[in-house]
């Protein structure tokens, strides 16, 4: 009966968002209250559980996600993303232009939120298409695969960062494991898969041709790469150093402080304020205005993350997580595959990768200790599951369809299949890593 209530709650969440067209944050609140009532939590305690869940979830994430948004916004508006693209194009040339776009998408995808990166990269893709008269899907899909993988696999993106917090994983290790899985996933779902899509005729509007900054107004290449990738450098550096000196408490303490995701992002934003802000002649006031605008872009994302925390706390406080953990022990399925399956199912039903990942975490996190799996791998398993088969209920599906001006059939054949390949390949990578860790 308990498991049925949980499944019914997830079903209600799906219906409210899809058929009811309810905002996901409001849907999470409604479902949390209904689940609390159904699971027997006293009326006076339900709102306490909801408030505690939202507070606990956002308390650990709001700094990371907000600072990440600020960094991404400044990288985009300063021209650093454009400079990175320009450098990569020069390195790879026309013959390997597709691989240049893949690398550009991956590098830019780390600091930028997916929708921002998508809109930012579209003019570059189309300018290449028009200039070299190449098939648009063949050229564009690999770069967008890179963006999608970064969005689903790699912190400090909102969903992976939230999953790290939920599963009490290590941000640095998750990032390193994620990159090792991301690279083969991008290659298979991007350049290799796109070879089968050359005959799809896309008619991208000329209005999307590049409206870029003049070359003399762009930051330097080294500055652009360094500032954009600084969070990755810091997380990787502190993780490696702490593993090299496991007995040195002073080194471990310093690495633990500097490697804390909130401190990493604060350092990155502070550096960017000067390297991409005042160092390029911008006033501190204008940089701060850019940061203020960035928060508007993620306000709803933060609310959705908070709402997922409410549902998680209701499941914890009702004791249902322990019952589910006990029943799952009798299932002949690996916990990492289970996390992927739940996340993939919710993704297909709802369309939102963030909601899918966080809802799954609410179910899995309370019983993670009983499942005896590496929490970093569980973050990745749920994350890759949340990218499964994007279709008509996903805004990303329509972004791709409308920008490339292709049919729904061809969008499913290209975009939806690319996301599916990323998800399945990612799971295989997680399971391979699990055999060595």
TrEMBL record:
Q: Does this UniProt record's set of keywords contain Cytoplasm? A: no
GO molecular-function term, one example from the UniProt record: gluconate transmembrane transporter activity
Per UniProt, the keywords (alphabetical) are: Cell membrane, Membrane, Transmembrane, Transmembrane helix, Transport
User: What topology in the membrane does the UniProt record assign?
Assistant: Multi-pass membrane protein
One Pfam family per UniProt? GntP_permease
From which domain of life does this come?
Bacteria
What Gene Ontology cellular-component terms does the record carry? plasma membrane
Residues crossing the lipid bilayer are 26-46, 58-76, 96-129, 136-154, 174-193, 225-245, 257-277, 336-364, 376-392, 412-433
Where is the protein situated, by its record's location annotation?
Answer: Cell membrane
The record's annotation in PANTHER family points to: GNT FAMILY GLUCONATE TRANSPORTER, HIGH-AFFINITY GLUCONATE TRANSPORTER
Q: State the similarity comment.
A: Belongs to the GntP permease family.
**How is this protein named in the record?**
Gnt-I system high-affinity gluconate transporter
Organism of origin is Pseudarcicella hirudinis
The uppermost taxa in this organism's lineage are: Bacteria, Pseudomonadati, Bacteroidota, Cytophagia, Cytophagales
